[in-house]
Amino acid sequence: MLFLTRLGLVLGALALAFAVMLGGGLRQGLLALIGIGFGAILQGARFGFTTGWRNYIERRDPRGLWAQMLLIVLAATLTLPLLANSSNGELVGAVAPLTISLVLGAFLFGAAMQLADGCGSGTLYKAGAGAPMSVVVLPTFAIGSFIGASHQPAWIALGGLPPIDMLQLLGWPLALAVTAAGCGLVAWLVGQGARRHRARLEAAGQRIEWGSAKHWWIGAVLLAVLYLVHLVVAGQPWGIVYGIGLWGAKAATALGWNPAGDPFWGVAPHAQRLADPILADVTSVTNIGLIFGAFAASRWNGPARISVPPAKRLLVASIAGLVLGYSSRMAFGCNVGAFLDGIASASVHGWVWFAMAFAGSLIGVQLRQRVSSQAIGASSTQGAPA
Amino acid sequence: MTRERTFRLITALFWLLFAVLVTLDTLDSSGHRAEPPPIALGSGQAASGGHCSGR
Questions:
Q1: Are A96 and A163 contacting, i.e. CB atoms less than 8 angstroms apart?
Q2: Which residues have a Cβ under 8 Å from the Cβ of A138 and sit 6 or more positions away?
Q3: Nearest to A233 among B25, B30, B40 (CB)
Q4: What ipTM score was computed for the predicted complex, to two decimals?
Q5: How far is A233 from chain B (nearest CA, A)?
């Protein structure tokens, strides 16, 4: 029976990629396969940005953040030389300005992702795995991202500094060295925090048992390889929220909304992407693949156990999803599009995003504890972190 | 019907609706579109996909 289930999942994945290829072309089919890989790795390795941050904030467990830093350094090492030597704009990184909207948006995103129990990629893979919280968050995330994109030009107009692209300024070897040093510094700082915490607990006669983190290290390495493959095929780094916002815009258009005159969706190149099929959009097809990949990984060993959180917790999560989507467009992306892509592309905006989102998460974790205790625990698909 | 089964049913319907909408969108907007080369690296064409960093 398990063999048949697995065969069905593999055939389903191939059928999905083939269907996307028929609808969007060969490149889109390849990107769907890459998305399936992303989803399978995220779910299989339980690789969660949100959980990694929360584990450090609540328990000073540094391993999730270490794995994320490893992922970023590997991604930068594999892709910065390619980006530097790319001609005709074949390959581009994720570079964005240092605006007021980036600072505010990243802070809000960091807080909301703790309440929604997932960031952009986390929401997608957990929704694919069937986690009720993320299934509820995804539609409001799409609405928020759609509206946030529409308001993005106004937020950018508030001002800020132009993009700082270290790849252009320093060349790839130095840009990579600065990026690796920055990640190393973060890893060292969180390690010091963990060491002090452990010493305090041991002085009080307590012991810390964290279990194995091998799956996170393997996940980081595999994600970095797929990150490289995605850049080579798509010409741009892996993204999440552009596609989710496009789904919201598509739905709004289907309900009668007219994008003409909209400062974002009504102008090039976004207006054309809205007119084109969803399967022609890069981030949409990797997102769809990611959802299926996570579903397949969660069912690989049989049916997943699901427990539904209380209605109040689901309501809070859905509202947080709205903020999550909106703020992700203020901040030029989520943990993938801004944090991973930005830093791995040697863009300073990625570091600003990380600092502000982590500050937001400090608040978000406190809010989450309060909401969860009131709603008697928030559970999701067994063992699936955000 | 338990709460879990109800939610599983709602989730299945959600994804079914999603698949139907994507299919309808593909059929509805199937005008001529210049298909990009399968792999961007070495294609000689500038990347043109949407990305949350503002592209």
A1: yes
A2: A123, A124, A127, A244, A321
A3: B40
A4: 0.92
A5: 4
Low-confidence ranges of chain A (pLDDT < 70): 375-386
User: Taking chain B, what is the end-to-end CA distance rounded to the nearest angstrom?
Assistant: 47
Q: Is A347 helix (H, G, I), strand (E, B) or coil?
A: strand
The answer to whether the Cβ–Cβ distance between B51 and A337 falls below 8 Å is yes
Q: State pLDDT tens for residues A168-192.
A: 999 999 999 999 999 999 999 999 9
pLDDT at B1: 62
Cα–Cα–Cα angle for A226, A269, A255, rounded to 5 degrees: 95
pLDDT tens, position by position, A266-288? 999 999 999 999 999 999 999 99
Q: Classify burial at A3, counting beta carbons within 10 Å of its beta carbon; exposed 0-12, middle 13-18, buried 19 or more.
A: exposed
Contact in structure between A32 and A285 (CB atoms under 8 Å): yes
Contact call for A308 and B3, based on CB within 8 A: yes
For A202, other C-beta atoms within 10 Å of its C-beta total 11
Alpha helices (H) along A204-310: 214-234, 241-254, 270-275, 282-299
> How many Å apart are CA A171 and CA A168, to the nearest integer?
6
Please state, in angstroms and rounded to a whole number, the distance separating the CA atoms of residues A324 and A319. Answer: 9
The answer to whether the Cβ–Cβ distance between A27 and B38 falls below 8 Å is: yes
Nearest to A108, CA basis, from A336, A347, A325: A325
Kindly determine whether residue B29 and residue A234, on different chains, have CB atoms separated by under 8 Å. no
Helix (H) or strand (E) segment spanning residue A161: strand A160-161
| Residues ≥6 apart with Cβ < 8 Å to A148 | A245, A325, A326, A327, A328, A329, A330
Supply φ then ψ for residue A160, to 5 degrees: 150, -160
The size of chain B, in residues, is 55
The partner residue sitting opposite A277, judged by closest CB among B10, B29, B42, is: B29
Q: What is the pLDDT of residues B1-47, one digit of tens each?
A: 688 888 888 889 999 999 999 999 998 876 677 889 999 999 989 99
